[in-house]
Amino acid sequence: MNYSLGRIFRKQHTESRLESELLFHVEQRAAELEGSGLSREAARRAAQLEFGGTEAIKEQCRESRGIHFWETLFQDVRYGVRLLRRTPGFTAVALLTLALGIGANTAIFSIVNGVLLNQLPFLDPDRLVVLHESKVAFAQGSISYPNFLDWQKDNGVFSAMALYRFNAMSLIGNGRAEQLRGQMVSAGLLSLLGVTPVVGRDVTAEDDRPGAPPVVLISEGLWKRKFNASPSIVGTQVNLDGAGHTIIGVIPESFHLRLVNFHEGDIYTPIGQWKNPGLMNRANAFGTRAFARLRPGITPAQAQAEMDRVCANLARTYPDADTGIGAKVVPLKQQMTGAIRPLLLVLLCAVTVVLLIASVNIANLLLARSSIRLREFTVRSALGATNRRVIRQLLTETILLGLGGGLLGLLLAVFVTRLAVRVPNLPRIHEIRIDSHVLLFALGVSVCVGILFGLVPALRISRAGAQSQLRGSGRGTIASRHKTQSIFVGVQMALALTLLISAGLLLRSVYRILQVDPGFTPHSVIGFDLTLAPSVQSEPPDAIRAALRQVEERLSRIPGVESAAMGWESFPLASDSEQQFWLDGQPRPASDNDMDWTLWYDVTPGYFQTMGIKLLRGRLFTPQDSHDSTPVIVVDESFANRFFPNQNPIGGRVHIKQSDRVAEIVGVVRHVKQWGLDADETHSLQAQMYTSAPQKPDGSVSRLAGGMGVVLRSQLPPNQIFQAAHQAMAELNSQNVVSEEQTIEDLMAESFATRRLSMIMFGAFAALALVLASIGIYGVVAYVVSQRTQEIGIRMALGASRTSVMGMILRQGSAMALVGVAGGLLASLALTRLLAGQLYHITATDPLTFAVVPVLLSCVALLACYIPARRAARVDPNIALRCE
After folding, report:
1. Are 334 and 748 in contact, with CB atoms under 8 Å apart?
2. Distance (Å, whole) CA 616 – CA 669
């Protein structure tokens, strides 16, 4: 209290001294003028005029002291808050408009920040890369295990390498049997990434070898869910796929990593312990990729050159398997975010356009409001306030609006961000949050926007002529303000049109995708994964075949199920497996990699009926196509057109490399969209081949029981069928595991989820831009009508009809809109090319979109102008002239 009183007394003392000093100088000058012959009153008046306004001089002196800046700033803030409270309507509209613009920008930035800008949550993430094996059919294919071992041994650019492969295993015991998703990994994966287990250790080279005791790393989530987070978990045995595995460690739940064939799961087992006899075959690859850490100072380009050298050496050493095989080095962050990066950047540009429209809208409102406040600031200027002081007062008010809108927008951004993390297949989804970077962004945008939309009105007011405003004229100022508002409306319309055309192009793209024939009938088809009990997997081949027939028959008998089938290897839009072959009658290629490639589907006979895949020629599989009959295959139309052009493929024979069997083509079916509804036709591998699962050789039958995809066709609700399938499989064997339930229509929707997301976001931004632009043109035209009330009254008193008055107002509003539409068309022709990568069978200059959208926007603008024009036509001349 004493401190505050002291400040008050010091301030009063300083002000008193300043007042005394100014009076002293005025009196001194007056005395000089009086000595030159003027009367005392004339001398004092001349001295005061010479010095100017004393209040202005005081203001300059206060500003020169520096501390006064903060005092006046606090006064400006208080005055600004009081003024905004006195105009609740204007304040509410401005805050809502800014909240939408700033909130949308903050939400998109939070996604961009989490996905693209933030460092990966690993040790020295810039040195982490992903390795692929490049081959004829795939630029980024899977790596054979022997090749990986040689890459690991022979390279000189990586300090560590680790292989990985998707894996799923059944957990038996510890409650109901369930399917656990996870990874097979080579030694040192966690240390390579810089991940420390919660308890226990990483997989070592001693674990990662054939014949070693089975071990497993588990996730922290599984540790808590199944083992009550017991600290003594290390050394505990768990039953996976019927075999005991020793838990050696727990991976923290903060470990999140999703990319090709890697998805953080519940279990991690050493790949070297995998009992697949084909693992050590250099020509085989099982969906494996690798992580690597660059040595200090090594760039990805240098690593690529080194791997090219290593692969060339392997091709000379193993010409049969490695001719034409290369390596592809991709930075880990690029691998994770490369596909989504263009979309996020385009969305950020789009949402910035929305913010610009919102800012222009508020600027227009302030310009209209300035006519009310112009006299206030003119009086303040006449009393000594400088232009800089007036501008600062106005900018303080607009920055307060910006900060208020930013605070509300931040709440909106929190809501939108929570929705964004539910988007399927969005990378780094766990890192999307409102963090300090996002808060600083929101603060910076709020302040910048406050300055942006407040600067033009502030400059307009500060430049107004004091004397003309005091006299009540200022028509030139009003005309200039109308011109500025018209320019703003044109800018709004141009920006809105650009967003609307972009949204229209994306909408037409998604519509085209929805019209794509997937090659099968997805309606009423559901799918799930099924793993048979470990005891069944270890039975003889004939017993496994019988168990599979029993499963299919039991599923077919579920009430409401029309047909059931099972499939392995590839599944449309979900998983792929490839097979190499050569046609009968041609010599076997000199190298395995000189063979032709085809997508491989291993299915039961009812698969085509259940999936709704149409037969074009020949026949489909029948129960007579058993393991002791002649091997037969069905191919798709792409296979037939490529390898049997202008001839009938039925009866053709194909040498299948993996099984070393010759199979006869008995049927041709429709091509199915394997790679995505919008991406299939651009993929290099199109040919498809179906083999009959019952014809599987005895040595491979056990793999069928280890995991399969099941499809059922039924008109009943999916949840009802899924529940019945769970019950049916449990009745056969309590250790059978059903997992990954999904309708095929949902699977199709996921295949173009990115395009759908871009359409939804652009559509939302475009709709918001349309609303803001409409409000903007309505506000300007309404304001013009209010300013021209007397003129309209005079026109109508002199005989002008209501129709002519309405037409005059509509022409003025339409002119502003049409100028904006013309500018927007030119901008769209240039900017929509940035969307080319997001479009499907639509050009960036699609004539229909460019014709329809401008007409739509013009109609909306005309409607916005019609309301104030109609009000103008109803003006009563007597009342208008009397009020004026």
Report:
1. no
2. 5
pTM over 0.90: no
For 869, other C-beta atoms within 10 Å of its C-beta total 23
Helix spans in 421-474 (H): 436-462, 466-471
Task: Give me the average pLDDT of each 10-residue run along the chain (884 residues).
Answer: 47 58 67 71 68 56 54 73 81 88 92 92 95 87 94 95 92 84 93 94 94 95 92 93 93 90 91 89 89 96 96 93 92 92 89 89 76 64 64 82 91 85 78 91 92 75 51 49 74 90 91 92 95 91 93 95 95 91 90 88 96 97 91 96 94 89 95 92 92 90 90 96 94 92 92 84 88 82 74 77 82 84 89 85 91 91 84 70 56
Strand partners, 565: 711
Question: For residues 169 and 737, what is the distance between their CA atoms, to the nearest angstrom?
Answer: 10
Cα-to-chain-centroid distance, residue 785 = 44
Neighbours of 559 (CB within 10 A): 9
Tokens representing residue 509 in the block: 């793209």
Quick one: DSSP state of residue 593?
Answer: G
Q: How far apart are CA 54 and CA 41, in angstroms?
A: 18
- Phi and psi at residue 740, to the nearest 5°: 55, 45
- Say how far apart CA 53 and CA 60 lie, in whole Å: 11
Query: Is 363 exposed, middle or buried (CB count within 10 Å of its CB: 0-12, 13-18, 19+)?
Result: buried
Supply angle C-alpha 104, 107, 111, rounded to 5.
Answer: 140
Structure tokens at 309: 């050298």
